[in-house]
Each structure stands twice: as structure tokens, then as C-alpha cells.
């Protein structure tokens, strides 16, 4: 490109100057940073909504002044919908693959860029366009369907479902494009000597995720188009008034959205594998088991969607089969947990903030995992289905799991991304507040669910008040933690001391180039002669 | 089985109103204990290791242990066995939950935004209240007139979606007298959290008397009948009748005979015909300040006699 003739920078950040050079960049590292800024913004918006929801639930509506933050059930339902949709489609699904994956997949493989740099940029624009469409609905015709868009409610409610669904569709394209790009990159651009079995586990995780993205997302796309067609033209696929089947939508929806749960968590498992081995300075235990269990989880995840529908009216036999297959997902997940703990054995463990987040992940994911088995058990799920128990469970897995890993990974790779160090004490403080706040917020919700409090409730009976109060107070602790974290990041970028090439003494390839990396990643193409974690 | 019940006591589950509830709690108790042990092993192991092997010098030597086939087999196999055992145990209870008993007392329940409409075999209708005799198999036949709802009785550990366009069912045999909550657990819009019903378990005699009373209500005066209908059709979730306070829709208190301004500026008299029109074609004339399209039509759901009863009731709201 002609505009690039006058570049002189020594790293990817100062390689070219000006906003336009960022908006037209095809450098995977810059695209990773652009994703980071967008996702952080969406996380902020979704987070503020979460705080409002918790504030509303601080007391039952009968109590004067408190418990009436959101005016009425309609406003609550709208905020709830946007909180869910933003956090799922704009934060947790793209989070790790789009930010850390984009930035580090080529570096991990010893490649100059991803296989299709321009498609990579296109996927960011798809993501932003989809997000813009979805957020646009908020300003003129809010939706209140919940992020699942269940029919026939979503067809009947007189709101902007079609536009929202179109937004999710376009964001889905971004997801598919990123997946495609990653798969080809892994197969085609590995440095000389980097066999599949010498790839870091984060790459394995991204690879498994990419396959899921490619196969599952189109199903969501078709489902959402059908929903839009139903709403616009009344074609009668889902609406019983037109001869459709409302439960069919749930089958379609979860056929995507259950694998999507693993799109959210597998990359987190990849990050945690990197963190545990680096900060224990020890080879990871059971490399092959971890790598292939990612693929195993990805494969089985396509056949478990019916466990969201045990009480929907699907047949007893279907319920039994789905329960059985769901139990099988527990095994590779348990294997990973044991492998991580075994890696710590006889290691040299440091408590740098990324490691704290990784240990936090293990703690929270253990609880998220065992409660997942409870939900897979048929008669117990009948009681827990659509109660706060489910809310607590998936927050433990997605927030406690994915977000902990995202934060840990972010602090871990911060020196590489920006060439500077952050304030370690602030980062640790941030972890402590988030970790404690998280448990204070979500553990009481397990009990609320067992007591029978249904989810998506604007108001509740007085018996549930105390635990809801505790939960709301917890959300303030989480907020405090994130504010400390944000401050640590901003201060680190502005005034942090210069980072060395490899501050954590890690073995993987991205640390064998300067911080921040040059435009082409490596001055000399690396040649790989051993596995990724040869700490001896 | 005592230790399961100890676990149950710590599990914060609501009162056990049925035999199934006890079975579910036993399995849940088992899972709680197993899960607790698993978490202690994983989290405890993690804490022990990070403390014992914390970095002492910058150049600690670490062990090079890449895998251990026996250990890995063991920790894949043991969870698998536990999961399968739990699955089979769950299957057994689930089958009991789903196998509908013959000769059960059948009660029809219709979910609608935002109330449970209950109808007994003798034609007696109530709203948000299901009364059943103790110690008898009861089968609830569910459906919905608008969106998906879900019928949930926490104390009985049972739940089933009410899906428009089809029937679903659940059964239970209550073993405790008293009142239990019915919640809607499938998100259904504005007043989802207000869609709360009561399940009353009474003695056989009380139940028979209850149904008889219901029969007698058919001979009530017109306005009383209207009041009943007003409750059954859940009109009160949108219209207040004892104060001028506005809910989702306009208040009906002391409105009869007065003039109302419509959203197009037109003034209409709030009379018998306007009430009738508003029930059958609610979007034709909207009172100023209220959105169109909120109220569903009741065309085809009320006969002439019922319409007159409602008009009579609204007339008397003074």
C-alpha cells in the first residue's frame, strides 16, 4: 500500500501513526488491541446494567425507596435483556479469541500474521457493525425478550427484535470469519519445527474453539433469520397461532448456544494452561490429555443441547439421552482440572497477579463444574431449571471462569502488548476484590435457587430478601475490584516502567521477540526444536 | 440414608411436600457431599501445592513430570463411574416423576400473561389458586393462551412448561397440609415475577366442600359473577378497581358514566357499550396517555352472559 511507504517505527504501535492507520490496519496485533478497546467498552456498559439489576433486587418492591430503582417490570426486563445480550455476544464470546487470540496466535506459532489479514480486519468491522445494530435498538425501541429470544414471546412483544437479531447475525459472521482464519493459520503458518504437538495449549484451545465457531454459528444465523422472517412475514414456523412449534426454536437456539458455552470457556482453559505452567515454571502435566480433551469437549458439546429443555415438554427418552451425554462432558473437564493441579506439584510457584487469577479460575471453575453435574442430573434439574441456581452456575463458569482467565491472560501478556509493566500491587488488590466480591455475589444465588427463587424476576417474596441483599453488596465489591484493575491498566500503559523481553521467564515463542513486538513479529523466523514448556 | 438428610438440612431446600421431593433431596444430598469432597480435593490440593511449592529462590529447580498414565486413567475413570451412577439414579427418579398415574384427579391449568387460570372437572374456575386433597394423585394438565409459562411448585420439586398450542402435564401426591407457592419460571414479560399462585393442600372433606361452594357460585348475582370473572381473567393485573391509581392500563374505579379523553382527542362516554367494545376490540379507542396494543382481545373467550356480568361489575365500582 502506498500509504505505508514512509514507516519507520521499531514496534507495531509506532509502526504507523494516526487513527486512519489503525482503522485500516491488517496487523493482527493492532486488530487485537482494537478488539480490546471495543470489548472493554461493551463490558463497561453490560457491567453498569448488572449493577442496576442488582440494585433493583436489593429489596422487594414493597419496601419504600429502595427496590424501585428501575421503575417497573418492563424497564427491568429491558435492562436484563441488554445485560445478557451484551455480555454474551459482545464480551464473553469474542473476549479471549478476539483479543488475546488475535494478538498471540501468530506469535505463538512463530508466524508473521494470521492467514488472511484482511478478513481479520473485516471480522472486526462485522463485530462493530453488529454491535452497533444491536445497541441502536436501545435508543428507539428497546427489546425485552431476554438474550435467548424465546418464541412466541419474541414474536409477540412489540419491540425491535428483528434489528437486534440482525445485529447478532452480523456479529455471528465475525465469529465465523475469525474461526476460519484461526483454523487456516494453525494448519498453514506454523514455524519450521512446530508440529501440532509442539503448539502451546492456548493454540490448541483456540483451534478447538475455531472449529466450534465455524460449525455452530451458522445454525444460530439460520435460526435468527427464521425468527426475523416469522416476525416480519408471519411464516408460521415457531408461532403456534400460525401452526408453528415454539419448542422448535429452543432446539435450534440451543443447538448453537450450547456449543457457544464452550466457545466461551475453552479459550479460558487455554489461557489457564499457559499461566499455570509459566508461574509454576514447570512442564504442564498431561499435555496431550489437555489438548485432546479440548477437542473432545468441542465434539460432545454438539449433542447435549436438550439439557436446557428437560421441562419444556420434550419426550422423557430425549431427556434421558441428553442427561447421559451431558454427564460425558464432565469427564474431559475433570481431567483438565486434575492436570492443572498436578502441574503445581513440585513446581516453583510465584504469586504474580496473573497466577492469582489462574488460581481463582481453578477455585471458581471447580464450583461451577460440580454444580453443572447437578444440573445435568434429570430430577434435580427439574427443580433447579430457570431458578437462581442456574444463574449462579453459569456466572461461576462464565464470569468466574472466562472472565478470570481473560483478566489473568491480560495481565500476563500486558508487558508484551505494551512493552511496559503494570503496578503489581494494584493488580493483586483488584484480584482480591473481584474474587471475594464474586463469591459474595453469586454463592448466595445457589441457595436462592435451591429455595426456589425463579430467574428473571423483577420482584420477589420476602423470604428471599436477605440473600438478595448480600448478593447486591457483593456486586459493589466486584465494581471496586474492576476499578482498581482499570486504574492499574491505564497507569501501566501511561507511566509503567519498561518491560523486558521475557519478564516471567516463559518458554513459549511470543516471549522470544522484543516487547512490544515489531510489525513483523520476529526479526528472524524462529525454528522450533522442542515442546512449548521445557522447564528443566 | 441419614447422612443424606443431614446434607439436605444444609441444602436450604424448601419443605418436602411429596414423596418425590424426598427422593430428589436424597440424590441432591448425595451430590452435595460428593461435590464437596471433590472441591476439597481439587481446591485443597491446589492450596496445599501452591503453599508447599511456593517460589523460594529465583532459580528453583522444578521436577520434570510430563504425565503418569496410571494416575490419568484413575482420575478419568473414577469421575466417569460417579457420573454414570448419578445419571442412573436420576433416571429412576425422573421416570417416577414423568409416569402419569392412572385414576388421578385431573385439573386443567391455563397459563396466561400473567396469571394461572384453574378449572376443575365440574366447571368451577379460579385464578392463581389450586386446591387439592391430601394423599391423592393429582394430574395437572397444562397449556397456555399466549406465550410459554412454566408451572413450578418448589416444595414438590416439580416443574413443567405450559406451551401454547399443546398440552403438557405433571403429577404429584401431596403429603403435607398447607399452602405452597406456585411460581412461573419461564420468562413471560412485564409481570413475570408477579405471576405467583398458591397451591392449597386440604383434607378430603374440605376439598369436597370447596368444589360444592364453587358450584353454588354459579347462581350468584350478576355483579358478583362479574367480580369473579374479573379475577379469573386476571383483569386486575392491569386495571385497578379500588383506587384511581393507574397500573398498566387505566383505573376502572368510579369511571362509569364519566367522559374520557381518547388518544386522538375525541371524548367518549364511559358507558356499557364502551366497556363492551374495550373488551372485544381493545385497540379501537385508547384512553389518552396509554399505549396501543397492550391489551389482548377477549373476542371469542367470553359469552354474552359473561360480558353482561363484567359490565355490571364495572358499573358498580364506586
From TrEMBL, chain A:
Compartments where located: Cell membrane; Membrane
Signal peptide stretch: none
BP term (GO), one: oxidative phosphorylation
GO MF entries: cytochrome-c oxidase activity; heme binding; metal ion binding
Catalyzed reactions per annotation: 4 Fe(II)-[cytochrome c] + O2 + 8 H(+)(in) = 4 Fe(III)-[cytochrome c] + 2 H2O + 4 H(+)(out)
GO cellular component: plasma membrane
Pfam families with a match to the protein in the record: COX1
Record carries keyword Acetylation: no
Keyword DNA damage applies: no
Family: Belongs to the heme-copper respiratory oxidase family.
Protein name (database record): Cytochrome c oxidase subunit 1
UniProtKB/TrEMBL annotation, chain B:
Reactions catalysed: 4 Fe(II)-[cytochrome c] + O2 + 8 H(+)(in) = 4 Fe(III)-[cytochrome c] + 2 H2O + 4 H(+)(out)
UniProt enzyme class: translocase
Required co-factors: Cu cation
UniProt record similarity statement: Belongs to the cytochrome c oxidase subunit 2 family.
Gene Ontology MF, one: cytochrome-c oxidase activity
PANTHER family given in the database record: CYTOCHROME C OXIDASE SUBUNIT 2, CYTOCHROME C OXIDASE, SUBUNIT II
Keywords, alphabetical: Copper, Electron transport, Heme, Iron, Membrane, Metal-binding, Respiratory chain, Translocase, Transmembrane, Transmembrane helix, Transport
Note describing how the cofactor binds: Binds a copper A center.
Domain Cytochrome oxidase subunit II transmembrane region profile: start-end pairs: 4-101
First-listed, main subcellular location of the protein, grouped into a coarse class: membrane
Transmembrane segments: 27-51, 72-94
Topology in membrane: Multi-pass membrane protein
Domain Cytochrome oxidase subunit II copper A binding: 102-213
Name assigned to this protein: Cytochrome c oxidase subunit 2
GO biological process, any: ATP synthesis coupled electron transport
Function field: Subunits I and II form the functional core of the enzyme complex. Electrons originating in cytochrome c are transferred via heme a and Cu(A) to the binuclear center formed by heme a3 and Cu(B).
Residue span, Cytochrome c domain: 221-318
Assigned EC number: 7.1.1.9
Organism ancestry: Bacteria, Pseudomonadati, Bdellovibrionota, Bdellovibrionia, Bdellovibrionales
Amino acid at each position: 500500500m502506498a500509504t505505508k511507504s514512509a514507516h519507520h517505527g521499531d514496534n507495531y504501535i509506532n509502526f504507523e501513526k494516526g487513527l486512519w492507520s489503525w482503522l485500516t490496519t491488517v496487523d493482527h496485533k493492532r486488530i487485537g488491541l482494537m478488539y480490546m478497546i471495543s470489548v472493554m467498552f461493551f463490558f463497561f456498559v453490560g457491567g453498569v446494567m448488572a449493577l442496576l439489576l442488582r440494585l433493583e433486587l436489593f429489596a422487594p418492591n414493597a419496601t419504600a425507596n429502595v427496590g424501585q430503582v428501575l421503575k417497573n417490570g418492563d424497564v427491568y426486563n429491558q435492562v436484563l435483556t441488554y445485560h445478557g445480550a451484551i455480555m454474551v455476544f459482545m464480551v464473553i464470546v469474542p473476549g479471549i479469541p478476539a483479543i488475546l487470540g488475535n494478538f498471540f496466535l501468530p506469535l505463538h506459532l512463530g508466524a508473521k500474521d494470521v492467514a488472511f489479514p484482511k478478513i481479520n480486519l473485516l471480522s472486526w468491522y462485522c463485530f462493530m457493525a453488529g454491535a452497533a445494530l444491536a445497541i441502536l435498538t436501545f435508543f428507539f425501541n428497546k427489546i425485552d425478550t431476554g438474550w435467548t429470544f424465546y418464541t412466541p414471546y419474541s414474536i409477540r412483544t412489540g419491540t425491535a427484535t428483528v434489528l437486534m437479531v440482525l445485529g447478532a447475525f452480523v456479529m455471528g459472521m465475525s465469529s465465523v470469519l475469525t474461526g476460519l482464519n484461526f483454523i487456516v493459520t494453525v494448519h498453514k503458518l506454523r514455524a519450521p519445527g512446530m508440529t501440532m504437538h509442539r503448539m502451546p495449549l492456548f493454540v490448541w484451545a483456540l483451534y478447538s474453539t475455531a472449529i466450534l465457531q465455524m460449525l455452530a454459528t451458522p445454525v444460530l444465523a439460520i435460526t435468527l433469520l427464521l425468527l426475523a422472517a416469522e416476525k416480519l412475514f408471519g411464516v408460521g414456523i415457531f408461532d403456534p397461532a400460525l401452526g408453528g412449534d415454539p419448542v422448535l426454536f429452543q432446539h435450534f437456539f440451543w443447538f448453537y448456544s450450547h456449543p457457544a458455552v464452550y466457545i466461551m470457556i475453552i479459550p479460558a482453559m487455554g489461557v489457564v494452561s499457559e499461566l499455570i505452567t509459566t508461574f509454576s515454571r514447570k512442564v504442564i502435566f498431561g499435555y496431550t490429555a489437555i489438548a485432546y480433551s479440548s477437542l473432545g469437549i468441542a465434539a460432545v458439546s454438539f449433542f447435549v443441547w436438550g439439557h436446557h429443555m428437560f421441562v419444556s415438554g420434550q419426550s422423557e427418552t430425549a431427556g434421558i439421552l441428553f442427561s447421559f451425554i451431558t454427564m460425558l462432558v464432565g469427564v474431559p473437564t475433570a481431567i483438565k482440572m486434575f492436570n492443572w493441579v498436578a502441574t503445581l506439584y513440585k513446581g516453583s510457584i510465584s504469586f504474580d497477579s496473573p497466577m492469582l487469577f489462574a488460581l481463582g479460575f481453578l477455585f471458581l471453575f471447580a464450583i461451577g463444574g460440580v454444580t453443572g453435574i447437578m444440573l445435568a442430573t434429570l430430577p434435580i434439574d427439574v427443580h433447579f431449571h430457570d431458578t437462581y441456581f442456574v444463574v449462579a452456575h453459569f456466572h461461576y463458569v462464565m464470569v468466574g471462569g472466562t472472565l478470570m482467565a481473560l483478566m489473568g491472560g491480560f495481565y500476563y501478556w500486558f508487558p508484551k502488548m505494551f512493552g511496559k509493566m503494570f503496578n503489581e500491587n494494584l493488580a493483586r488488590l483488584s484480584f482480591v476484590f473481584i474474587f471475594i466480591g464474586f463469591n459474595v455475589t453469586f454463592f448466595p444465588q445457589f441457595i436462592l435457587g435451591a429455595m426456589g427463587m425463579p430467574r428473571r424476576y423483577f420482584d420477589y417474596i420476602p423470604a428471599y430478601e436477605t440473600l438478595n441483599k448480600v448478593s447486591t453488596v457483593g456486586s459493589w465489591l466486584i465494581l471496586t475490584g474492576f476499578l482498581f484493575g482499570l486504574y492499574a491498566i491505564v497507569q501501566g500503559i501511561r507511566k509503567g516502567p519498561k518491560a523486558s523481553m521475557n519478564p516471567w521467564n516463559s518458554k513459549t515463542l511470543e516471549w522470544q521477540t522484543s516487547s512490544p513486538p515489531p510489525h513483523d513479529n520476529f526479526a528472524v523466523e524462529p525454528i522450533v526444536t522442542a515442546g512449548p514448556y521445557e522447564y528443566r | 440414608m441419614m447422612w443424606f438428610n443431614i446434607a439436605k438440612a444444609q441444602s436450604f431446600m424448601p419443605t418436602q411436600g411429596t414423596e418425590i421431593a424426598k427422593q430428589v433431596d436424597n440424590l441432591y444430598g448425595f451430590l452435595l457431599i460428593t461435590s464437596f469432597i471433590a472441591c476439597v480435593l481439587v481446591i485443597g490440593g491446589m492450596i496445599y501445592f501452591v503453599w508447599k511449592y511456593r517460589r523460594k529462590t529465583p532459580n528453583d529447580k522444578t521436577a520434570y513430570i510430563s504425565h503418569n498414565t496410571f494416575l490419568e486413567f484413575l482420575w478419568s475413570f473414577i469421575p466417569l463411574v460417579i457420573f454414570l451412577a448419578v445419571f442412573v439414579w436420576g433416571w429412576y427418579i425422573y421416570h417416577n416423576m414423568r409416569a402419569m398415574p392412572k385414576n388421578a384427579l385431573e385439573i386443567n391449568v391455563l397459563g396466561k400473561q400473567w396469571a394461572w387460570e384453574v378449572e376443575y372437572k365440574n366447571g368451577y374456575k379460579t385464578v392463581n389458586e389450586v386446591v387439592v386433597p391430601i394423599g391423592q394423585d393429582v394430574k395437572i394438565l397444562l397449556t397456555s393462551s399466549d406465550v410459554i409459562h412454566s408451572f413450578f411448585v418448589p416444595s414438590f420439586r416439580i416443574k413443567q412448561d405450559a406451551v401454547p398450542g399443546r398440552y403438557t402435564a405433571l403429577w404429584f401426591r401431596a403429603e403435607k397440609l398447607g399452602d405452597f407457592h406456585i411460581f412461573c419460571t419461564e420468562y413471560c414479560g412485564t409481570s413475570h415475577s408477579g405471576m405467583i399462585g398458591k397451591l392449597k393442600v386440604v383434607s378430603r372433606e374440605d376439598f369436597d366442600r370447596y368444589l360444592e361452594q364453587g358450584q353454588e357460585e354459579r347462581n350468584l348475582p350478576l355483579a358478583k359473577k362479574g367480580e369473579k370473572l374479573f379475577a379469573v381473567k386476571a383483569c386486575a393485573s392491569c386495571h385497578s378497581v379500588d383506587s384511581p391509581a393507574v397500573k398498566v392500563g387505566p383505573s376502572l374505579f368510579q369511571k362509569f358514566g364519566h367522559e374520557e379523553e381518547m388518544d386522538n382527542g375525541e371524548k367518549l362516554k364511559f358507558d356499557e357499550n364502551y366497556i363492551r367494545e374495550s373488551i372485544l376490540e381493545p385497540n379501537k379507542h385508547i384512553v389518552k396517555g396509554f399505549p396501543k396494543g397492550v391489551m389482548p382481545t377477549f373476542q371469542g373467550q367470553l359469552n354474552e352472559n359473561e360480558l353482561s356480568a363484567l359490565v355490571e361489575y364495572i358499573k358498580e365500582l364506586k
